[in-house]
Structure formats: C-alpha cells, structure tokens
Predict the structure.
Amino acid sequence: MANFTRHEFIQRHLACPACHMLVTRTDNGYQCPNCGTAFEIKEDIPVMVMPLQRKSLKGLEQKKAVFKSRTLQNKIRQMWVPPSPSLNVAGGAGRVIQAMPQGAAILEVGSGIRRLREDVINLEVDLFANVDIVATGDEIPFPDSTFDLVISQAVLEHVQEPQLVVVDMLRVLKPGGQIYVEIPFLQGYHADPNDYQRYTLRGIEHLLRAADKIDSGVAVGPSSALVWIIREYVPLWFPQFLRAPVRLLTAWITTPFKYLDWLIARRPDAHRIASGLYYWGRKPVAP
C-alpha cells in the first residue's frame, strides 16, 4: 500500500466487480468505463455490488448500534450473548499479518466489524462498522494481482459456492502473495445469514490446492468443539421457552473447558475432531 491511506488505495485500485476494469469517480459514486455500471457510495463506503444485488442491502444500523451504544438497555442485552466456545490456538490471521510490513496491501474478505490492523482493507456484504467496501467475495472489486495478503476467517461456511470465493481471492492476490483461510469442521449451525458447509483438513487443502501450502492444521481445537456441541445439546432436553436461559447457563459452565485446547490442539490427530481448521498458502509465481 506504500504511503497511501486505505481510502487513497481504494480510490486508486477500485474496479468493476463484473469486468475488473478500474472505475472512475463521479458526482454520485463510481462508474465502470467498460460496461457502464454505476456504483453508489453510502456512508462514505463504496457499494460495489451489481444492481440486482443491491436490494438485499439492509444497512444493518441496528447491529452497528448494538456494538457502539453504551446504553443500559444494550448492556443488558449483551449480557445474554453467550461467551464464545472457540479458542484459536493457531493465532489466527494475526500471526500472518505480523510478518507483513506496514503498508502492505492486505484485504480481509468478510471482516465483520473488526479491523486487524490499520492498513487492512475490510470487505463485507453490508454496511457494518469498520467496513471499507461493500462487495461479495466471489466478485471482489479490484483488478488482478492487487494484494500482498488476502484473509478469510470463518466466512466460507456462509457462502453457497466457496470455490468461487477462493478463485477470486487468488485472482486479486499478487504472484507470491499469501492467502490465509479458516473454516469450521465440528461446529454448531450458525447462520449469518446462512450456514452451508464444513470442511475436513483434507477438504480445506483440496479447496485451496491452487495455492502452494505454507502451513495447515488446527485453528480451533477439539475442546472447543466439545464445548460447542454440549451447549447446543443440553438445551434440546428443555421446552422451547427455557432453551435460551439454559443455553446461556450451559455456555458459562462449559466455556472454561475450551482452554484445554492449549494442551491438546497441537497433537498429531487433533484435526480429526477439531472445531476449526486453517490453510496458509502462497500464490504460485508463473515461470
């Protein structure tokens, strides 16, 4: 990203998601000089999805407000959110980013509301907080060979065609650039807004076979998988009106057991019952 800010980098490299041609700035947003498609800007965020897809945009102001607001009502509401059953023993994308120099061109596909580092460009499917671009992972609005690193954590289970997202993430990656992906294996159903698939270690390695492997293995270990299953299993024995409080109580009781993954997740066969797996690869350099 050199000495450019995220905003400047986006303006210089933003492209049409359909034909990958650089778009031009207009009074109301951006326009593709090749196919003529116009793209709007909402809340200073480029909305780089094709016209038919824009109907699904909600803005999700309420979700943003829940995380931003410090009102007593929202604090009480957040108390009912169970603690995470997952412990990432692999270090997640953070360890990959640490090896990248400041100013590297980094894209996170499906960032949610977090920002891993100030120079990471966040791409999401809606107008969440901390999002730089609204787009889909299978139509990333950048030209070929733009980024030094592309990240996707706990995203591909939520898309119908994960192989199309992988292809496009590799497309925008520079030759020799790195890709880091995490996918669940043994986790409960968690729609956001949908949940479609799980992968074994061999499955994620096959999905990302076009990238040369740097490393792969357990991201979230067997103890976390067990905690997740128990917190979903126990409430099934109770009537519907009791399931929410029982799930919350079960979550608080079982959550400490996920820390056993520090002892067991790195064992050779842990991937057989792991909660989540990762693949860290490099885009081949053409001879």
Q: What stands out?
A: The chain has one domain: 6-281. The mean pLDDT is 89. The first strand starts at residue 24 and ends at 25.
